[in-house]
Batch of 3 targets.
Target 1
Amino acid sequence: MTYPTIYSRKLGRFKIRGEMIRGHPEQVIEAFTLLKMLPVDVKFSYDTDSFDYLAMSERFETVPQGYMANEYILEMTADSTGHIELVEVRKL
């Protein structure tokens, strides 16, 4: 089976605050859509009230087999109606 280029081990790890998921889930979905992102693993961290994601996206670097994915920060900008206009991805 062959996969599209986006799925060729372009993996990244990042966190989203619990308050963002609970208060604005539509913005999170919109950001994932803009980034053509596919979450493959999600864990909730009670001590930081955040969701820890492992996802595939063309915006992440390719990770060799057996290596840990890099950690990234997602920075979102919304317009006055709350729609996501821009999502920046920055490697830590």
Target 2
Amino acid sequence: MTDFAALRRLVRATVHETFSVPATYYHGDMSVPVDLSVRRFYEATDSGDFQGQYARRLGNLDRIAFSRAECEAKAAPLLRTGLLTFKDTDEVFRLDHQDPSDGSDIVMWSVTASNHGR
């Protein structure tokens, strides 16, 4: 029988690898920015009526998933107020706080849009 925790880690790593996008991470303690692969998470809201007609609407980007192993391998400690720039859109986000760990290799951070450059 396969260990469920190991299987969950494998699936999450596969999802991260498949759906991640390139970004550049930087904080004031670093001499140069670091390229990372991250996943975007958008807030979602449901709205509808009493007849059961509902729609899910995506809102602002509010969380970003990082690979702990990649950050450690690239000596990129994730710190509050660090800046992440998505290479495909040039959008910049500031790390606010790290979500509680679920024991996997994926590290989730809540973020806010920033008007700072790289």
Target 3
Amino acid sequence: MTRINTSRQAVSAMQRNCTYKASGAIAQHVINATVELDSTDPVLYIDSKFLVASKFSNRYYTCKLVRGQWTCSSQDASVAARCIAQARAFRQSW
């Protein structure tokens, strides 16, 4: 009889959505939402857009402030919130 692990941590790990593939490839939706740029800065301001570094090297999410409303290229709400918070903090530091 095989044992089933029902600990909260194990169940949570099984339900977690992860964009990192074991092969080292980046998920397609992350590639679609980010731009590639050779930089190590966490936030950049280029062409009236804020570029916020993703967890993948040289990949940046695009954030914009349009008529007082922030938008982010990420489809994931938690990633978008993190990116917008970093862009706001960067803008306030000017």
